[in-house]
Write a structure and sequence with these properties.
There is one protein chain. With 161 residues, this protein is of the alpha/beta class. The chain has a single domain (2-160), classed as Dihydrofolate Reductase, subunit A (3-Layer(aba) Sandwich). It has helices at residues 26-36, 45-51, 80-86, 99-105, and strands at residues 2-9, 14-16, 40-44, 59-63, 74-77, 92-95, 111-117, 125-126, 135-144, 152-160. The strands form two sheets. Strands 5-4-3-6-1-7-10-9 form an eight-stranded mixed beta sheet. It has a two-stranded antiparallel sheet with strand order 2-8. The protein binds NADP nicotinamide-adenine-dinucleotide phosphate. NADP nicotinamide-adenine-dinucleotide phosphate binds next to strand 1, strand 2, strand 3, helix 2 and helix 4.
């Protein structure tokens, strides 16, 4: 099974503010949907709260320490190991955030799909630093949002060496 992380990160590593995304990037959301469709997506309970519903076409796995936690249409688990166990039949499982989950998933991940936004955004949640010497950049696609206030962003794939 491939264990993947998927995230969008600003130039200062921001991934979120007040439990929401700091930017409006519809193309990135479309890409997220295309990549994760028909797969298991594993998220921290706080990220689930910010989304508020299971995402269609995917098995939503919520990681929480609350053993009584239950959400209709989702699978609640109490550890990352348990998240992998319930996803065992999938050829690719996606850790989709937030910061707490990314930090714990990085040591076990084989691939990172990182949207690198080339602008600084204020935030209170950040993508963890990772040692690039352990990863090979296998793809980088530059894009730009439209309009005068547009900014550049790159779809990057890192595979563990
Ligand atoms: N830009 C992006 O790509 C992206 C993607 C996703 C999220 N985000 C942003 O990230 C932010 C949220 O990140 P966050 O770090 O605050 O929270 P988070 O990682 O979404 O969730 C943290 C929660 O997950 C549970 N948890 C974590 N590790 C666990 C473990 N080992 N075992 C059991 N449960 C565990 C705990 O839930 P309980 O408290 O219930 O025990 C913990 O409070 C938001 O701003 C969101 O918008 C950004």
């Amino acid at each position: 099974m491939r264990i993947s992380i998927i995230a969008a990160m600003a130039a200062n590593r921001t991934i979120g503010i007040e439990n929401r995304l700091p930017w409006h990037l519809p193309d990135d959301l479309k890409r997220f949907k295309a990549l994760t469709m028909n797969h298991h997506i594993v998220m921290g309970r706080k990220t689930y709260d910010s989304i508020g519903k299971p995402l269609p076409g995917r098995s939503t796995v919520i990681v929480t320490r609350n053993v009584d936690y239950a959400v209709p249409g989702c699978i609640a688990v109490n550890s990352l190991d348990a998240a992998l166990t319930v996803s065992f039949s999938d050829e690719e499982v996606f850790f989709v955030g937030g910061a707490d989950l990314y930090r714990q998933a990085l040591p076990i991940a084989n691939r990172i799909y990182l949207t690198e936004i080339q602008r600084v955004f204020d935030g209170d949640a950040f993508f963890p630093e990772f040692d690039k010497s352990q990863w090979t950049e296998t793809a980088r696609e530059p894009h730009r949002t439209e309009g005068d206030t547009g900014f550049d962003y790159h779809y990057v794939i890192y595979d563990r060496q």
